[in-house]
Amino acid sequence: THTYPLTHTRRTRYYINPYCITLSLCELRHSASLANKVFIQRDYSEGTTCKFQTKFPSELESRIERTLFEDTVKTLNNYYAEAEKIGGQSYLEGCLACATAYLIFLCMETRYEKVLKKIAKYIQEQNEKIYAPRGLLITDPIERGMRVIEISIYEDRGSSGSSSGSSSVSGSTAR
Amino acid sequence: MKNCEYQQIDPQALPTPTPTPQPHHGNDTEKKKEPRRPRRKWEVFPGKNRFYCDGRIIVARQSGVLPLTLGLILVTSGLFFIFDCPFLVKHLTSCIPVIGGVLFVFVLITLLQTSFTDPGILPRATPDEAADIEKQIDNTGNTSYRPPPRTKEVLINQQVVKLKYCFTCKMFRPPRTSHCSLCDNCVERFDHHCPWVGNCVGKRNYRFFYTFIVSLSFLTAFIFGCVTTHLALRAQGGKGLVFALQESPGRYPLVICFFSVWSILGLSGFHTYLVASNLTTNEDIKGSWSGKSGEDVTNPYSHKNIFINCCSVLCAPMPPSLIDRRGFLPADESAQTGSADIELPTLAAKSEINVVGAAFALQKSPSPVETSLPAVAPTQHLSAACC
């Protein structure tokens, strides 16, 4: 007898991995094997602000349309630009934070963190709708130190899950 | 359904639940009592850092002279408040201890924030990433091992910048990132490793550091001025300066302040110049943008406007910590899959909090900055305040 019912274990395994909370993605991981990973590097042409290259990698040519990929990366770049934008509001926030000896950072969620949550949701949505059906999985760049967007390419093995111990790769880190 | 992962986990889970009668209670002490518990990422962090309060506080391994800095500030301010303030309140105005108190609190808080905040450490590349980078640059295809070339050139705002390959972290360092050998980490927008605060100064804690040295210069100058006034008033009172000096222990702050005010003012001035031109100490020392090699180089990161430079350095949105100290290691990496699943019923409720909490905890250290100093670190013997 199992100590925990199978469904319970399954559901809580989803909770451990917030990027795999739908059935389709976990089925993907357990019925497919990781074939390759593609890394989208940062684009430093405008300085140190967070921006990723929109160049379409050749490994994805057979998997996904170029426009869909470029849209995803451009939307992510826009999110990061929004998070790092300096303007009137950020000056005020900075001055207010300084006046409180930056203690305000301990109490409030910063603007960057709010945008990071939006990004996480967006990536999850993209994974569910667009990438998982094509056997791909995007890892949130924050998991990789904002250096790369890691896209895992899965090969469908066709048969129902043989042991997939090596499937604990890109998306499986718990934050 | 032969889905091996689920089958494998449950038999391992079977024997271990018996020593933990109520896994649903799952508070921190329960987790720690269990022989295998899910580990947090700070416990396997590869750099030379120490962590306190379960990963909320991060300091460099060598605390440098942070205790000395704290000691000097506390002793000087303490002597000032005890010996000089009563006299000055009586003879001048009672604003003096108020101003001094505000400055003192400011200095302490920003010092602790500088020391205990992640300066912008870049996590090391995962093995897959490192392999991908090596594959990209090893395009001759020969099988003998050849170390990757050390530099890559990028164009930033029409200025050629060389990115170096970090052999420790196995990645090309982003611009303005440098590897600190004392902390064994790559730090973004690396300024310098400050022994006085016992931490690197980088992108995330530069504003704390700048506020610290500016408010410390004000505090030092203020104490210097007040003590001088105090002694002058006493000397006028009749018996001469020498007697006034000998009489009051309030002269010690004078000595300390006299020697330190010049260097602190100088440091503040230097960093104000750096902020206004959007430079780091590292770049200034190396002369990266000064064009000393005769080429036409300009700082590609500068906005060419002092006000915008200041705002982008000091008032930009606070970037997140990239090392996720309080996140949990994935179940298979923490080498105890059984207990990781035992924890699941509790983590099912708490992991949402942990996922969100990890983001918050990166910014929050609940008590240490707000309470006064004499709390004792649970695991290490350094003088670090802890929750």
TrEMBL record, chain A:
This is Golgin subfamily A member 7/ERF4 domain-containing protein. Keywords: Membrane. It holds the Pfam family Erf4. It is a lipid-anchor. Residues 156-175 are annotated as: Disordered. Residues 159-175 have a biased composition (Low complexity). It is found in: Golgi apparatus membrane. Belongs to the ERF4 family. Residues 38-150 form the Golgin subfamily A member 7/ERF4 domain. It comes from the Eukaryota. GO terms for biological process: protein targeting to membrane. GO terms for cellular component: Golgi membrane; palmitoyltransferase complex.
UniProtKB/TrEMBL annotation, chain B:
One of its GO terms (molecular function) is protein-cysteine S-palmitoyltransferase activity. It holds the Pfam family DHHC. Residues 162-286 form the Palmitoyltransferase DHHC domain. The chain crosses the membrane at residues 65-83, 89-112, 208-232, 252-276. Its EC number is 2.3.1.225. GO terms for biological process: protein targeting to membrane. Residues 1-40 are annotated as: Disordered. Its main location: membrane. It catalyses: L-cysteinyl-[protein] + hexadecanoyl-CoA = S-hexadecanoyl-L-cysteinyl-[protein] + CoA. It is a multi-pass membrane protein. The DHHC domain is required for palmitoyltransferase activity. This is Palmitoyltransferase. It comes from Astatotilapia calliptera.
